[in-house]
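Annotated sample (chain length 745).
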Amino acid sequence: MYLKNEKKFNKKKIFFLVPSLRGGGAEKVIINIVNNLSREKFEIGLIVIEKEGDYWDKLSSDIKLYCLEKSRARYAVFDLVKLLKKEKPDIILATVIQATTTLYLASFFIKGITIVNRVTNSIPKILTEENKIIRFLFKKALRKSDYLISISKAQKNQLVNLGIKKEKIKNIYNPHNLNKIKKLKNEKLDLFNKDYFNIVACGRLSKQKGFSYLIEAVKRAKREIPKIKLYILGKGPLEKNLKRKTKELNLEGKVKFLGFKDNPYKYMEGADLFVLSSLWEGFGCVLVEALTCEVPVISTDCEVGPNEILKNGEYGELVPTKNSKVLADKIIYLYKNPNIRKKYFQKAYKRVKDFDVNKIIREYENFFIEFQMRKNKKNKILYLTTTSKFSGAEKMLFELASRLDSNYEILVCTLKDDLEGELLDKLRKKSIKTDCIHLDKKWKIWKIFKLFKIIKEFNPDMLQTFLFFDNILGRVIGTITKVPIIISGRRNADKKRNFFRKWIDRVTFPFADLIISNNKKGKEILIDKFNMKKDKVKVIHNGIDTNNLKKEQKEKLLKDLDIYQEAKNEFVLGFIGRITEQKGLKYLIKAMRELEDVFLIIIGEGEKKKRLKKQVQRLGLGENIFFADYKQNGQKYMNAFDLFVLPSLWEGMPNVVLEAMLQEVPVIASDVGDVKVLLNEEYLFNSGKTEEIKNKILKLKNLKESEKQAMINENKKKIENKFSIEKMVEEYDKLYKNLIKNNEK
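Output written by the structure step:
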């Protein structure tokens, strides 16, 4: 690899990638673009894979130019990766299929560079003419691109038909330096015999350009136009075959092959007619150049470009592809009707103004500037949850919303206004926007319409929900309001939901783009029982702030709870959480009947609290079990316990177990959800089994101090390595960026 025009980059880098600088239309276009882009707005780099080419001297001297010096594009992948990692351009734009596929392969090894592919040919033809591997790579490359540039409206439609979103495609015509063409066309040329009807064709001598049909058409037209001559400018792999065909048709005096010409415009200007005989095109630059030279044109009505340039025959004649007879008839028609030819070249310049380099370069500059604005734009996330109470789901939401980087604009909305809830207050202290629907206990349905207003005003890129009621509302209202990305949550794995909940979940699941489960068991249930596709369900485990270890003395905490005298000499069990059926506390209370020198502290609120207190009195355990009110900083009371017990009947990934592990408190729990991911099997029991709960408590009560410390150390190490809050936020951030990127595609 070598580098020309060394220059230090200070501005936004825009790199262009081409296979070579051979004398083709695509290469000419790229040179036009890089030569004319504003140096005040951008720093320009051009990467060329192959050294060969006719256009090297056409480049401006201030362009940072690289040549990878490879004989084939596929050999350039790793050199390209190395170069891009070193130079770190903001955007790389590839053009021509070889460059596009090479950049696709390189993209697996580079990050942080926006990939734009400029499509230069008819998509259906690429997907039929190229070999299977190239077709496969090309389609993959188009879909992986951040943006695509089509060079005609018809080509844009082809890309849309391929399944690519319109929003990802920008249509920009090829630029042409009209002033330069007008100047060059006036160069002196002593070639054409004015007594002849002189036809010029220009392009690479390849199958695509259909020159064999043009040569056959000249053979047919010669009967009506004895003094006819065809001049073909260009070179390519079919040169020998075309010359052989010319000889076989006895046209050696009528067809001349002039090779590649730096200035084809003086040939166009001196001709009586220009013909484009292509079987397919991406645009058809030579038609614009011929019109600029004010020469009448005939073009095949091939895919894609010519019809668009000539506006369905308004600025030139159109003929079907692969039909030498019709092409010959049209040549004869224009030969016999000089007034028609005059009409075409008189209005030709009006059309070519649409392709003027100054106009097109402004479109490219605006595209790059708009891209930068889009890149700098913050992605908006609306988090919707049912309650403001600071339980497991709400704690995770708080950590996520407060730790995501500044690339996101966040609004957290709750359905219910819980006066004792901490979530919204904590978020406001972090300067995070909050709102509330203010649904009371009677669930006044009409208040739900406020959510429509919130979505309309905030205009989120993404709506994420967590619990049953907010999941249902989020899926339905998010779909109605056309939120681009809808994410639902599935937190409890084993819960036996009633028929209505199962039914409404099943009906509304398709409205969500993704379901996030905080446990593997939850994902299995969604796939097995709700027939959801694997790629529509993702597991992201809860995380915990490993820097939030604040241990306090057991004695002090027991005194805070005003139970020091009752519990000071006992083996203290503890539970912190919502007191509901889910938590299975009645089985833990039953187990207490057969335990001696054991004291149980239950901290929390919930609908089952009164019933459990009655159960305690009925069993005569009032002196052994203490109920504490909800504590805003409940985690600190973990150190009042010798053992934390979670007897839940169902769970997902319980935060409270993570908190106990972090606070270096031994834990036993029922084997539900992903608890087994957190704890070893020896510390698990079957849910609802009083005898098993009792036996596990006795085992931990009699555990040696060294064994207890080993358990604590193992738990803490597991938390730090696998369940840190940083890891959770990183996974969500990566997911959000991929979803947004895929949505743009």
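Annotation: The first helix runs from residue 25 to 36.
Annotation: The two ends are 33 Å apart (CA to CA).
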